[in-house]
Records
---
Amino acid sequence: DSWSDYGSRDKPGTTLGRTVPDGNVLFPDIFYTDHLLFYERFSAYQDYILADCKASEVKQFIAEYLEKVLEPSGWQAIWRTNVFDVLVAVVDVNFPALKAVVQLSEPFLCESQDSSFTLECMQELLELKEHQVLLQELFVVYDESGGFDQTALAIEHVRFFYRCIWRTWDEEEEDEFDYFVRCVEPRLRLHYDILEHRVPSGLVADHQNLLSQCEELYEKFLNVRNSISSNDSDSEAENVSMVEGLKLYEQVEHIKQRLKVIENPLLRYVFGYQKYGSLQAKGLRSTGAKVIHVVPWNMKANLLQQLTRDKLCPESCGALEIQFHRDPLAAVSACYEGDRVIICPGHYFVDGMFSIADSIELEGYGLPDDVVIEKQGKGDNFFDCTGANVKISNLKLVQHDAVEGILNVHHGKTTLENCVLQCETTGITVRTSAELLMTNSDLYGAKGAGVEIYPGSACTLLHNGIHHCKEGILVKNFLDEVYEAPRITMVNNMIHNNEGYGVVLVRPAMPSEMKDASAQETTGTFLSLEETPETTKSRFLDCMLHTPRFLDCILLNFEIWCTQPTQAGDEAACAEGSRQEQPGCVTDELELCKRAQTSEQAENNSEIANVLGATSAKKRQIHRKRLSELGFTEADDNLMSQEMFVSVDGNQFKWNGKGSFGIFFF
């Protein structure tokens, strides 16, 4: 019997833990089943409970499962509601109704919010309910024999399903879809993503609010639908009800679609969450005064003298107010427009997020390694900047257990100068309409891209190190007609030791590229690895000349592997050649090798600039074609000046796993 493999019926003794119920009444211990892992619940629902059932068959499949594993009588449970807890004994199970037939246990044990639930009241309540209560309201009393392990687990699965998975509107889902695949799996994954802090707290709040709204609107819709009589009368009241019902139905469907977006891990961050639209700047103080906020870790007399001389008493700051804080987060939270935060040397641990909506300066007094801000606990972003002109300098930021990136620039301009960023997930994200100026800084450790550049943004990177990330710099797709081209300046950066590419461009696949990919599917590559760098570059530029369409990002993924030799390979080849020459020519060969490396770095910079520029030029062609289709023969100069500004010069790309530059097609 395959059912005997699930649970512990044939094993001596229980395999489940026990827990003491909360409250003042001495209830017996109950089975502890809240700790089940994702794969345990996933396997139970997929293999034993729901399988390939349809939405309309869910209750029937659950009943059939319970008949196989549930003990019909002989066990005790605590019947829990929002009002009371009471100990009951189960004497039978009504499987089709998913209810248990119970009676009060002796001695009578009950805990409630008030003293009105006496023995007589509870007996009367059970008689009104015909002694039947929902199985998911029962918590099985612990039994060390192991005979009721499957019963406790089965009830836990039913309880979890109706609490976290099932929606009241699921019964109206179309039956041609597999209910487990369409609803159960994504909701189960979302539940555990939330438990493991992989979903931003704001998105979790949005999800809960949408669920509550949908439940409320769906209940109103059912009431309106039930109030409409089944006859063909054409009364004014019924016409009004039908119009109201249609409006409620549209609202419910809209919220259901938003919920599905959040439940889909591929879509929830793209379409499901607008977190920062309501973040408001404080502006200037009512008095117009500006304040210097000082955060001392351990203020000594000599440090105070130096700080006063260097930062607190310049000629133009004599009338400024000075405030002292122990916590950098508290100092930033106290800032208004134009304020300045000076953080003295020390290692600061913060449990929270820096939300900077005003134009302020945040600087460390000393070297970055001397002024460290480390995030404690799991959470969302570390730094979120929406201010018109934010400057962060001379700090080391350390991120742990993150959900989102270390620094997000959502609006305005953020300047990052002489900083060290030890990342956890993605590094810096420059959103649409935002601007980043990053100079003389070091960024490493991102499990995603070190820097993500969104369409319509401006990103200037000067003299930085970006290394040991999944990808170095990622430029998001901007070919779609609703996006503006970003402005990118990259000068004298060292981009090295990244797992993937040094720089990656993400854009839609062209129709011809889709055909080429299908023709070469058996080779496993999109471009032949035998092509020369010149041929590869030519194909890159040729790809830009086809008409792009925005494709569904879930359906198609292609990747172009750079065909140029890696820096490490060139060095090895050069060294090998040098060893084979006569000793007298070693100096000349090393000089030639150095020149070859310099030439290759220049080619890498030129290739990136050319491909990004060609993509921007294609976007300009798309706009011109759109205007022509609309009947505009002469384009507005402002509308047509969408071409990307690209300046890529003097950057060094070394030891990146897949090469200096690549294009990711979707």
---
Amino acid sequence: PSEPGAAMRLAALLAALRPVLPLVLGLSLGCSLSLLRASWSQSGGEDQCLGAAGRPGPLAGGAHLEAADGRLGPGHEDFRPRIVPYYRDPNKPYKKVLRTRYIQTELGFHERLFVAVLTSKATLNTLAVAVNKTVAHHFPRLLYFTGLRSAKVPHGMVLVAHGDERPIWLMYETMHYIYQHFGSDYDWFYIMQDDTYAQAEQVKALVTHLSINQDVYLGRAEEFIGGDEQARYCHGGFGYLISRSLLLKLHPHLDSCRNEILSVRPDEWLGRCIIDFLGITCVSQLQGQHYHTYELAKNTEPEKEEEEEFQAAFAVHPVSDMTLMYRLHKHFSRIQLDRAYQEIQDLQMQIRNLTSLTPAGETGLTWPVGINAPFLPKSRFEVISWDYFTEQYLFSCPDGSPKCELSGASKADVSEIIESALEQLNSRYQPLLRFSKRQLLNGYRRFDPTRGMEYTLDLLLEAVTQKGHRHVLAKRVSLVRPLSKVEIIPMPYVTEATRVQLVLPLTVQDLDFVANFLDMFAMNTLDTHDNALLTLLFIYHPYDAQRVSQVDVFAGVKAMVGELEKRYAEVKIPWISVKTEVPSQVKLMDIVSKKHPVDTLFFLASVWTEINMEFLNRCRMNTISNWQVFFPVHFQEFNPALVYRGEQTASSSTDFLRDGHFDRHSFAEACFYNSDYMTARTKLAADILERDEVLESMEVFDVFLHYSGLHLFRAVEPGLVQKYALRSCNPRLSEELYHRCVLSNLEGLASRSHLAMALFEQEQANST
């Protein structure tokens, strides 16, 4: 009887363990495999492949074993990341760590390529100018080095003069200058002469395929006269490439080379210096990359050269005159353009062949092939509208008018598009048909941010057959000007530590809003100790100015300023009194500008502006001396009586920009440096010739727009929110300024839907 009971207990135990049985088996199998693998690795570690003298042999593929301390061999230390532990000596006082200005400096990043052009006083205004106009803008950084400079340096060229025309001395000083000023900033240094034409794009592509961790001396290798057969120097006429590591090793020996090596040619002198002290010779190919060159014969016609060696040349020498330099540039630019078109055609063919394998199939193929598909709006508010134009007029004007004359960049754009359309039609139908334009019937264009500018043209064409028959027909064509490669525009460095000088003009009509402005200024700048100051500008009417001794209309404001100065003992708020009937913004800034240093950063505010730290920081960052001025577009709240109609005002932080609009008609707020304003104002004074009435029709924005040459940054600013207030528009100002003020008041009442509801309720009330 005990046997059946034991069997039942065993069955019950197995039933209980059955859910966890896979887990137990998995753990057991894993432990067994790990023990087995450990035994294999221990036995394998005792049987290393040893080379001669018992040293470990090289690994397959050319790699090398690591050293015992885990570091790689010579030449690889720059590629292995190292963690430097933080240690602070408790015996030394704490010192704040100063961070670098740019993160790439802290991480040790270098720019790619620096180019030095050796020129002379005789060729500075000829060949050097030709180099500057052809290839200089393709290189990231290019400097010209000469012994003696001429009286006038050509525009747009950065020139370094060493004061001596001796060739060896010029080369020595140039290498020393490059090391001292750019040795720690660039990985590659390309040195060329001004009688050399270099294909900039080819040279830039070359350095991207070379390792930066080797000593590179690459160019057209030439033999020394009567020297060692194995030694070579790089011919200076064809340009040569030097790596940063080689420059760092060469610099300590430059003085010895100058004193010990005698040579007539500077390139030979440099090559001998590198060979004697570093043991490195010039090579024409390295790491699978070939440096192709071509020597021009006399009276060469670049357009007729068809040799493969000429087509593939990185550098061409000698270039005897400016005209030949420009012809070479045109020829090689055409070669690069043809290569680019051929690559585009090949890529488009590959895309067509692969489209059938995609989930969307051939229906997913967009036009043009390889360009992003058009933007698909998700609602009617995202629809991109088309602008209509003809050859003479544009029917969507920047100032909002329905029709304006087509001129400037827009006219050039339309002309280029029509010419391109005719060229494409003729290339497709010739020799059967040849088209010529008679008239542009209709033109439409729009900017699609996902792909570029799109055009649709209705052209009236005249088609001529091979037999001379003529026929007039209308044809619609579509074109796309795709967005090109995005480039980062270099901007000067600015910080948020700059002091901002607020300027607040006040008239009698503004007295009701001054108290709120001063309260916001005290709360957001004085309480937070922001680096900002305030200057008030009291604008008296001539009648009020005569009675100022009896009744001062700004007495209340001055009392408020006195209270602020008592509350904040270290703060002084000066004011300036001005008497005028027409408060011109330019005339007022003329007075303020003379009372402040030239490096002052002004913020021209309005009495409805609510100052906050967020905007002041953007004012500092967006305003760059001698480069850019900032005109923010403030957010104007609507009239609460029309928007809410007695209901409670929305107080949610997410809706603070809901019931209002960005007032693009207002230019009252501006951030700019005093030096930039003074420079533009000087040019304006020379233009108007003491005609002060012209200033009444201008704002500070107009001064910078027409007379500064600086970048004008005009952008919406959510940090500038103004409560609704009906502005007083001075009819004595110019018609344009008065019209803008009236439009600002009208558009600031309410949105269309709110105005429609107000009219609807008014009509209902009148009907009842």
---
Amino acid sequence: AATKLASAEKLMYFCTDQLGLEQDFEQKQMPDGKLLVDGFLLCIDVSRGMNRNFDDQLKFVSNLYNQLAKTKKPIVVVLTKCDEGVERYIRDAHTFALSKKNLQVVETSARSNVNIDLAFSTLVQLIDKSRGKTKIIPYFEALKQQSQQIAAAKDKYEWLVSRIVKNHNETWSNVNRKMQSSPEYQDYVYLEGTQKAKKLFLQHVHRLKQEHIERRRKMYLAMLPQAFEALIPDLDEIDHLSCVKVEKLLETKPDFLKWFIVLEETPWDATSHIDNMENERIPFDLMETQPAEQLYEAHLEKLRNERKRAEMRRAFKENLETSPFITPGKPWEEARSFIMNEDFYMWLEESIYMDIYSKHQKQIIEKAKEEFQELLLEYSELFYELELDAKPSKEKMGVIQDVLGEEQRFKALQKLQAERDALILKHIHFVYHPTKETCPSCPVCVDSKIEHLISSRFIRPSEHNQKNLLSDSNIDRINLVILGKDGLARELANEIRALCTNDDKYVIEGKMYELSLRPIEGNVRLPVNSFQTPTFQPHGCLCLYNSKESLSYVVESIEKSRESTIGRRDNHLVHLPLTLILVNKRGDTSGETLHSLIQQGQQIASKLQCVFLDPASAGIGYGRNINEKQISQVLKGLLDSKRNLNLVSSTSSIKDLADVDLRIVMCLMCGDPFNADDILLPILQSQ
């Protein structure tokens, strides 16, 4: 309780580390060895001590307080070790302080660094009244504030570490040097110390290492199924093998080292191999882990499932081939109930069965068509009474169907009546015009095959220049532009399509041509209304008008179209065959107007050098467009124009031969399959 102390030449100690190592720290003497005491911190241990009675301690403290009070110096009671404090001891200490006049109590914990500064600053305020009064905070509230402060400092420090440390191979000494000047590092070290800062760094590095290993592991496991596919794709080879035996089997494969690497030290994730980024092969000891075993089992199951699915496909195909309910053209919805069972649904999606069914339908439809064609050949006498180029009437089609109706080959196409009727029409054209183009077997007609073989093996010099013409793919195609505003072009296009077969083919002189129509009603300089496109090369143009305005549109469009090709290499639009047609307005019977339009049309036709058709010349009644006869006449004219431009050649190279061997004639007649080289080569050599 003395207020004056004297201890000459004594060192001032700042921390316990100085004890025994004084020479390593700053040597600072106490001033003159004399010290005046300005106040007292009276400490009370409120923890449960060994062999110590708190009541005895409190009695000693009470006696000590009585001595200190005589000095008239400020006193602050400090409760220490509150982090392990006993509630009764703390309560009794507060009761003791309350019994004394103006005695303040501060609850502290040196270990947790809670309220230590507060204890001293409270005493300083009592000594120096000019200082502001210090607010005394209870231990648990101060501990909460301290924890929040440490947590905030820890978050900032961890952010600093994560920003600086990106590699799991970083060392503490190197990183510590980099962080010295950072306030985040300084604040945390001040609160928690260097050792805890280092501990957090080591935890971060360990986490980086584990993440790196996990990325490598995932990469290896992702490659493992591919390795299995490459090395052990055969189910029969591995179906009953254990994982250990499979590992031995893998080592015997020629490409084993392409996929795996055998390390001297294991496990792989505890070796330097984790940092060998250039080598992406799978460590072989990974096969001993559970995820690898699961992947192997999945590979095995996949092979078994693939085999089962293949068996289901075969079984389904066999069902299709043997089922009497599956007929050509039968929709999937009708066939499904006859051929599907629970096993099929278990192993494959319905879309796969639909695809198989679609391919099967295609096969049986083609076969049914071939058999129906044979049937038509057997009943050729049914078609002899038809007029040339005439479609059979409904009555004649009825007779044909009645005669053939009992035949199974006729019934087989019951669900494909439109295609069956088309085959009958095609057969009629073949009967009256038996050429390779109308042949039912086209494009594998024997005539075409022999012509191709002869032309490819035996080409005379005079034929060489015509070779490209003979291979023209547009020989059976007519591309027709229909020009007319206010719906005229679309209306005529629809009327022409109504005269075509189901597959847009048109018959001219007994031969079937593919007819492609391009109606144009707008500005021909726009790409959408252009006469030609990359896939459409016009062979002719029908120009329709029914008024002065529509006639002016036709003239302007033709001139614009011709102007657009002047100077270009592909300027055939300048010579494009044109046909100008006057189309009657529905309900318009004014003879004077009609006569005026005819005269104007004739003048324009003369100017454009094209054919002119009018209703009066063709005997067409009012309210109708051009008839089928006129359409055939126009299309025949286009074909003649194509021939004049050498776009079609009807000369067959086989006719250029001086003689035709009898064996070829026999093959053409009977239709049996033959080896063309065996028959043709001797002929070619003799020629």
